[in-house]
């Protein structure tokens, strides 16, 4: 099904995602290939000559580059938040409804903590199309029919699914990160 830009405006004004991600989702509708999507929702940040990490882009509700790893349908989450001022990553862990500080790791120790699929050396999967299951899950999370969602890469579908799960926790998580930064 072809989606015109007027329809895109309606379907991407979704309250389950932060405003900036809705805008980026609209951009995907204009892109021609999966390769065009690579830097729409995330970017590579070099931490050293040997280390480059792909971080989810910051947005108004989460003013830091971050990585979200979910398990058990979102009941367990690990949120890696890059804090440039500290040259460190704050790692938060959520078990069911409780968020706790897991660690604050320096830039030099980042490789030991970040999931391997976010390292730039594993970039091949960024161009792969999302599976039907990912597309249906993204549609369910965005509260819209699957035929209304643009074709996404597997990475971007995962990012949208995870961000929609995280959105209800963002206010608390950001406050927690700010408290941790102030204590450093």
Q: Assign an overall shape.
A: globular
List the secondary-structure elements in sequence, H or E.
Answer: HHEEEEEEHHH
Q: Sketch the major β-sheet.
A: 4 strands, antiparallel
Distance between the termini: 52 Å
Give the averaged pLDDT, no decimals: 88
Number of strands: 6
Explain the layout of strands and helices.
Elements: H1 5-11, H2 19-30, E1 42-46, E2 52-56, E3 66-71, E4 76-83, E5 88-95, E6 98-106, H3 132-142, H4 154-166, H5 170-183
Helix pairs in contact: 3-4
Please tell me about this protein's structure.
The strands form two sheets. Strands 3-4-5-6 form a four-stranded antiparallel β-sheet, covered by helices on one side. A two-stranded antiparallel sheet has the order 1-2. Helix content is 31%, strand content 22%. The longest helix has 14 residues, at 170-183. 29% of the residues are buried. Mean pLDDT is 88; it is low at 1-13. It is built from five helices and six strands; from the N terminus they run ααββββββααα. By secondary structure, the chain is an alpha+beta fold. A hairpin with a 2-residue loop joins strand 5 and strand 6. Helix 3 (132-142) packs parallel to helix 4.
